[in-house]
Amino acid sequence: MAMRIVVGGDNAGFNYKEALRKDLESDERVDTVEDVGVMEHEDDTSYPNVAVAAAEKIARGEADRALLICGTGLGVAIAANKVKGVRAVTAHDLYSVQRSVLSNNAQVLCMGERVVGLELARALVKEWLGLEFDPQSSSAAKVDDIRAYEGD
Ligand code: RB5
Fold it and tell me: Which Enzyme Commission numbers does its entry carry (predicted)?
């Protein structure tokens, strides 16, 4: 299934967001890539603004996944998780990236440009694209518990 991906980040994540967006654009598993900013390093729009803009696209069904980059990957995850229906994680290792989709059905992956090497981030995003949540798995009921808390 070709995916619609949103990318975004603040100025602390700008360089990685640009590099990872280019990778996504050339990956045949990706249908569309939408960039919600920031569009230049000098733009000091705060991380919650870009994170919420991306997360709202997921919540409205306009995108399947989002990749958000800030300095640590923490602030964008906190902000994205405020949007109802969105599950965002910060992950910089293979197992966490895998489980974020397979266990948590997270639609949003967040990374920190000041935390992880670029080549590792690129490899993790490549892995992430190949992961799919199984709604028949034993994890599904736990994700449903999150939805229930949100009143879904
Ligand atoms: C810089 O504003 C930095 O605080 C931000 O990019 C992020 O790391 C926040 O969690």
Answer: 5.3.1.6
